[in-house]
Design a protein that fits this description.
heterodimer; A: mainly alpha; 79% helix; B: mainly alpha; 2 strands; 1% strand
């Protein structure tokens, strides 16, 4: 990685840590511990299932919230504080700034997810007393959640590059909701003919497909996740993020910062 | 003490005092009001809509609905209510949100079909749930077992029960009782033995405490029904030999037809009535029995059961 991108990324990570983003881990730890202890009391026969479902859902939602709320301020905050001018007056190009911010935020989320994953596995160990081979699918689900974060970080950064923080949050959250219903949108596009069908198809391909990245339920049942899905989802998330970050760079390159 | 520290000290005292006082006040309010009813509404009955609202986190939502179904059933049962109308939609929604979640199907086969107050009295809904379960989990022998169980216990359809057990017995992973049950169903053989085998299989094939408890109670009730059937046969035998009815259990023992005083599973001796019937002393302590109830109470079997079931 270009040293200037690494510099922006490491600063973004440090800033997120300074903003006490990792404090969410405390809330997560409390949630997962309570779930592990209480689940046997309130549910019958599905202790492991509840811990996996609750743990992975919390990892995903905590991460999405962090990605949105940090991501939307990445550019606008720098402009507001006028620190962007200092950074850009050094030999840091605009595209390097955007890409560095993206890596910094995704790095923060990966570290966050790593600690949460430890929490999920500890809770799993507590309720099931041992880990099994089928628990590997939980790791795959966590990997898909990280891929989901890549896309959301990229989207938040894209909106942050031209919009206000509030509007960026609204746009990113809206795309998260629509993306979670992507399969329905595809289904609708398939059964719709004519111009509406074309529009629906274009939209279905344009919005991020988060439904294929959500394998929490399969992981909870210990189902094997096909290797091909892992490969395709990886490619999809990388390509989609690259597309969105390119868009953010293009917008930011042309943005009048005066 | 400087001003800032004084403010902190006062604020801390006010904070602690407020917490203590508001908890006491809340308890006083609770004592004034009648206990609020548990939320009995089911505002969204469409699993499709719930699936969309969950943004893909259907697994967690299914767990929530499953827990709700168990708590709803437990709550209604605890207050001896006959109204279990939400049990079927709660189990259906759970199954549609996560079709691979097996416990709701087993719970449904046991408690959705049984007549109130021990169940919801909805055998058709139970049957639909089992068929949905098999459709989505065709390799799970327990679901075929539950289907056969339903056909046998609720519909008395031996042919369909035999088909269900036979289908389950052909799966790669199955239970040793399945082919035996299929054969028994096909022959309509030994109702007591078949029922015992069914409830025993139910007991050993689940970790659900409520289902196990229910199976144990049925096994106990079967023993009582069988004891009473046997004792009434013995009374008939005595009558044929002595040309009169026995006056007490001791008469049966003196005639060499019984050994000792026969007792129910609670250790209470069975009672011989003047018309030659055998009764249990305290039917409320043995739910689900169909025989040995006080004269004229045969139709009240479920009421008797409900009073005894925690």
């Amino acid at each position: 990685m270009n040293s200037r991108i690494a510099f922006v990324a490491s600063n973004t990570f440090r800033e997120a840590v300074r903003d006490r983003v990792l404090y969410n881990l405390i809330a997560f730890a409390l949630l997962i511990s309570a779930a592990a202890i209480l689940v046997g009391e309130i549910s019958i026969g599905i202790e492991r299932l509840v811990v996996v479902n609750l743990g992975l859902t919390a990892v995903s939602l905590f991460g999405v919230v962090i990605a949105i709320f940090i991501g939307i301020g990445l550019v606008s905050k720098e402009i507001e504080k006028k620190t962007l001018y200092t950074v850009l007056s050094r030999p840091v190009r605009r595209w390097e700034f955007v890409v560095g911010k993206f890596f910094g935020l995704t790095g923060t989320l990966i570290v966050n997810t790593f600690f949460m994953a430890i929490g999920v596995f500890l809770a799993l160990l507590y309720v099931a007393h041992r880990l099994e081979k089928s628990d590997l699918s939980v790791l795959v689900a966590l990997y898909f959640i990280v891929l989901e974060f890549l896309i959301i970080c990229a989207l938040a950064l894209l909106f942050s590059s031209f919009s206000t923080p509030l509007m960026s949050a609204v746009f990113t959250f809206a795309l998260f909701v629509i993306g979670s219903l992507a399969e329905d949108l595809r289904g609708f596009a398939r059964i719709t003919a004519g111009l509406p069908g074309v529009i629906a198809t274009v939209l279905a391909y344009l919005v991020p497909n988060f439904s294929s990245l959500n394998v929490i339920n399969q992981a909870a049942h210990g189902d094997t996740i096909p290797g091909r899905l892992i490969l395709y989802n990886t490619l999809y998330a990388l390509l989609y993020s690259a597309m969105v970050i390119s868009g953010a760079v293009l917008i930011f390159q042309r943005r009048n910062l005066k | 003490m400087n001003f800032s520290r004084r403010v902190s000290a006062v604020a801390s005292v006010v904070l602690l005092a407020s917490i203590g006082c508001y908890v006491i006040t809340l308890q006083a309010i609770d004592r004034l009001r009648t206990q609020p009813e548990v939320q009995q509404g089911l505002y969204i009955r469409s699993a499709k809509l719930l699936r969309r609202l969950s943004l893909g986190y259907t697994g967690l939502l299914a767990d929530v609905y499953w827990t709700r179904a168990v708590q709803y059933f437990g709550y209604q049962h605890h207050r001896n209510s006959d109204d279990f109308r939400l049990l079927a939609p709660l189990l259906r929604i759970t199954a549609e949100l996560d079709p691979h979640l097996i416990p709701p199907y087993q719970f449904g086969a046991n408690f959705l079909a049984q007549k109130p107050p021990n169940g919801a009295g909805m055998p058709d809904e139970a049957l639909a749930l089992m068929k949905y379960g098999i459709e989505h989990n065709p390799g799970n022998w327990r679901l075929y077992y539950n289907l056969g169980f339903l056909y046998f216990t609720e519909f008395k359809d031996y042919g369909k029960a035999a088909d269900a057990f036979a289908a389950g017995s052909k799966l790669p992973v199955t239970n040793a009782f399945m082919p035996v049950l299929a054969a028994r169903m096909a022959q309509h053989a030994g109702e007591f033995d078949t029922s015992r085998m069914l409830w025993y299989t139910t007991y050993q094939s689940t970790n659900d405490g409520a289902i196990r408890d229910n199976a144990v109670k049925h096994l106990v009730a079967l023993r009582v029904d069988e004891d009473i059937t046997h004792l009434e046969e013995v009374v008939q035998k005595y009558r044929e030999q002595m040309k009169c009815l026995p006056e007490s259990m001791a008469d049966l023992e003196r005639a060499g037809l019984t050994h000792g005083t026969p007792t129910d599973p609670n250790g209470k001796p069975y009672r011989l009535t003047s018309d030659g019937r055998i009764e249990v002393q305290n039917p409320k302590t043995i739910p689900y029995i169909t025989k040995g109830l006080p004269s004229g109470d045969d139709s009240k079997v479920n009421i008797v059961s409900s009073a005894a079931t925690p």
